Here is the input.
Amino acid sequence: MPGPDRPKMPEQQIACSICRKEIPLSSALTPQGAEYIEYFCGIECYEEFMAEQKASESNVSDIPGAPGVPSAPGKSGEPGK
Ligand SMILES: [Zn+2]
Here is the structure.
């Protein structure tokens, strides 16, 4: 019998977007339909993330044209290339 010595593929580890804990990719939570992929170690971190998203969304849409929008001219505000 061939020995079971073949090294197992290590499961990919990713960091939770909220608490930065490393978790196996297969057990990470990922929001459906998000524009970008985020990973969460559990529903608590997921819900915290969603709450933050909602909070920042309502902040922006509630006050159109508010002067409080943080922009960084010269850094991310510049198209560059
Ligand atoms: Zn987490």
Q: What stands out?
A: Residues 6 and 51 are 44 Å apart (CA to CA). The longest strand covers residues 13-15.
